[in-house]
Amino acid sequence: MFTQVTIIGNAQGNWEQAAMGLTIVFNETGKLDSTGQLAKNLINITNGPFAGIKAPFLVSGLADAEALTNSLVETATDLELALDCWPSTGLVTTVLMSQQAHKLDVARMSLLPSLQRDMNMSATAYLPCMVHNWLGERRIALTLSNSNLNWPQLQLSQPDLPHILTDNEFSHFSALCPFSLLNNIHQQAITEALECEDTLAILAYLANTNIDIWLQHSNQEKLLNCEPLFFNQTPELTSSYWYLINNLASQYLDPIRHRLAYCQQVLSR
């Protein structure tokens, strides 16, 4: 068991090593001391591909690194079954430390990195974060005990009020369940490789739909069914749904996921 652990994710923003206990960072973001080594009480966990190794994780800065590595692999293997996807290093570490640390703080990590692509990205390029099931990871994170866990960034604010959608090009969607519309897009993406204007209009509508409408129609089964829509674990081997790699369509994905994640958060209370 660890007495006190602070986990610092890779989201934007400055960070400082915790004054007490161990601090865990990822993928070589840790500060080095004057000898080029990790600072005292600072542990770095790197995922295998980033480190250029075949093992899933590489742990640095801890005397018994092998034991922690083995625990990470065991935890990741269990989480993979619940996610239908290999988990992010951040979730694996947090789940493990929630079991092994008496006090755990998590910062710079919301488990919802942006799927918004730069408008100049090549269609053959993909965002690295696309390989993880982030909605599924948040589903699991929301079940962790709050007794020893301080993770304020996990809690999302309510999505912004939408633009007025009545009496405009989106009005004919308003009587339909947003989950049904999203499922229709997914089904179309399975059978068709290219986008169409009507589908882009639906994505725009869903990105602006009032959260109350989403909450009215949401349940755990519908939210679970939405998880596979937003990731591709092996984009270098299998084709991605067009909206994940289409620069314009991707502009709507973050607000849609925000709505789904907020519904998930409300239902978990």
What can you see in these coordinates?
This protein is of the alpha/beta class and 269 residues long. It folds into two domains: 108 residues, no CATH class; 97 residues, no CATH class. The protein has a six-stranded mixed beta sheet. Strand 5, helix 4 and strand 6 form a beta-alpha-beta unit.
Please trace the helix and strand order, writing H or E for each element. EEEHEHHEHEHHHHHH
* Fraction of helical residues: 25-40%
Q: Helix segment count?
A: 10
Distance between the termini: 28 Å
Number of strands: 6
Shape: globular
- The proportion of strand residues reads 5-15%
In brief:
This protein folds into two domains: 2-109, no CATH class; 171-267, no CATH class. α5 (178-191) runs antiparallel to α6. It is built from ten helices and six strands.
SSE blueprint and pairings:
Elements: E1 2-8, E2 22-26, E3 42-47, H1 48-51, E4 57-60, H2 65-83, H3 89-100, E5 101-107, H4 134-141, E6 149-150, H5 178-191, H6 197-208, H7 211-217, H8 220-226, H9 242-245, H10 253-267
Parallel strand pairs: 1-2, 1-5, 2-3, 5-6
Antiparallel strand pairs: 3-4
Helix pairs in contact: 2-3, 5-6, 6-10
Spell out the key features of this protein.
single chain; about 270 residues; 2 domains; about 40% helix; about 10% strand
